Amino acid sequence: MLRRFIVYYKSHGKMLFFDMVAALLISVIGMVYPIVTNKMLNEYIPNKMYSTIVVAGVIVLTLYFVRMLLRYFVDYYGHVIGVKMQSQMRQDLFSHLQKLPFKFYDNNETGRIMTRMTSDLFEVCELAHHGPENLLISSVMIVLSFIYLLTIDWILTLIIFACVPILVVVTVHYRKAMQQAFDDRRTSNATINASVESSVTGIRVTKAYTNSEREVEKFSKGDRAFVDASRRAYSAMAKFHSSTTFVTDVFNVFILIAGGLFLYSGRISFGDYSTFIVSVNLFISPVNTLISFMEQFQNGVSGFKRFVEIMDEEPEKDSENARELRDVKGEIEFRNVSYSYEEEKEVLRNVDLRLDKGRKLALVGPSGGGKTTLCHLLPNFYKLEEDCGAILIDGTDIKKLTLESVRRNIGIVQQDVFLFVGTIRDNIMYGRPDASEEDMIKAAQRANIHDYIMSLENGYDTEIGERGVKLSGGQKQRLSIARVFLKDPAILILDEATSALDNTTEVLIQQALDELCKGRTTLVVAHRLSTIRNADEIAVVIDGRIKERGTHEELIQLDGTYKKLYSLQFRENDLFE
To answer: Dihedral of CA 515/521/526/532: which sign?
Structure first.
């Protein structure tokens, strides 16, 4: 995992080099003060070298000014490096999310994904910036101060160094507990974000059912879990910091006692003793910095681990030697297709269907029978296993075709219309971003939405709000139809496109859909059987199998499941119109 993290430094190598050089100089300049202090106490002051004292002070002041500039460089450009790395990771993550199959989104909530995109990567950014600097500055300061302390008195220095292994043992002991606690804290944070995302998205449903208190309770439950996880994390962190601080305090006491005895016995001078006390802080301070860095390290590692978890999810990919689907006629065949979302539960069983170019096939039957699954399999949203049949377009197995070319030639209109935040223009043009203004308007006209759009103050540049909240259900549906018109696919899937609309709106939408279906091979899923009476063929799907097939009249004559379904929606005298 470390190697994968370091890869993100590659494009910032030059700036990272200068950042590290600046950090190194900061460490070196930090050693000037104790050296000058030692000279002051042992030479300049006893020998009354007043001019030298002033010059030494000016030199130290100048170096401190230089260190101020270096710290600015490190703080500013170091954070810039971290932010750019965070941006690169975020773009990689977002690009990877675009390639993940439907199964991933079936099992992962939006709020949890967003947590990994934002707060998790922020912690990674902080680690990317502070990690190298803290490690370099602290390591150099420890080494230089240790060497310098040896020149003053090696026995006192070894007393300090003897305490370092104790710090290492304490750090290792608490690190594992801290890592687990912070991992749990991040998981709880993701749960909160998921709860907020779900609640805000469904706020209208919440208000309609007056369930605000229930939503608050659900949120409180997640929040309590976060508080508990945070408590465990901070408990581990507090034990870690209090223990390590105690160890450093103890060897400060040892130095105080040993140094006092050495001074009393005449082993060291007062100047050396004073310098040693000052220099000890130069040794202890970076050690404490490294100890404190462990918290940030754990946060960053936890965030990067969660980032890697998504990046390791298997993306959708074309099969070897996959070719483009070109010059599409629109012939579709499901050949002995079986599919299951879970191993124990088979959704489709040995389905055989054929649909010729330009024909319309309607799928009807009870909910959960497998109709929508067939629609999802055709654009390869879910992959068929090798021994579970084949789906062919124009005689070619879709497994041998590129995913993009297959989906480019299939248009989908669903019951639950998804519109993006933006304008009407943005959402229609989503069907074909390079389309002309004229093509866009023509698509809107064919979808029976142009006149409404022109009645708006800003026309096609009208903002529609999140998920098209400013539009009615029928307007959103017609907008999605215009989007498909602009895409102009050879194959069309209508998945209960009118089932959520009132009768009057349904008539308008149905007219647009009929226009959309002209010349296209169409697969229709419908609960309202009145909308598919004129389909070229109707298939009744029950428990993942095709139970009946034929035209509307043939199925009525068959007097089977279709007739029973039809009878539930229409009066007896309407059956034979």
So the answer is: positive
Q: How far is CA 396 from CA 323, 351, 536, in A?
A: 10, 17, 23
Q: Within a 13 Å sphere around the CA of 147, how many CA atoms are in the beta-carbon half?
A: 7
Amino acid at 85: M
Name the nearest CA neighbour of 525 among 548, 493, 565: 493
Among 371, 400, 377, residue whose Cα is nearest residue 499: 371
C-beta separation of 149 from 263 below 8 A: no
Q: Name 18's Cβ contacts closer than 8 Å, sequence gap at least 6.
A: 73, 77
Q: Output the DSSP codes for 3-44.
A: HHHHHTTGGGHHHHHHHHHHHHHHHHHHTHHHHHHHHIIIII
Considering just the CA atoms, what is the radius of gyration of the chain in Å?
35
CA 80 to chain centre: 21
Phi, psi angle pair for 345, to nearest 5°: -120, 110
Mean pLDDT by 10 residues, the chain (577 residues): 80 86 85 78 80 86 90 86 86 88 83 80 80 80 81 80 75 71 73 70 64 77 79 79 76 77 80 75 74 74 86 88 89 92 82 91 86 90 88 92 91 83 89 90 89 90 83 85 89 77 67 82 82 84 90 87 78 43
Task: Compute the distance between CA of residue 362 and CA of residue 371 in angstroms, rounded to an integer.
Answer: 10
Return the axis-axis angle of helices 50-99 and 270-311, rounded to nearest 10°.
10
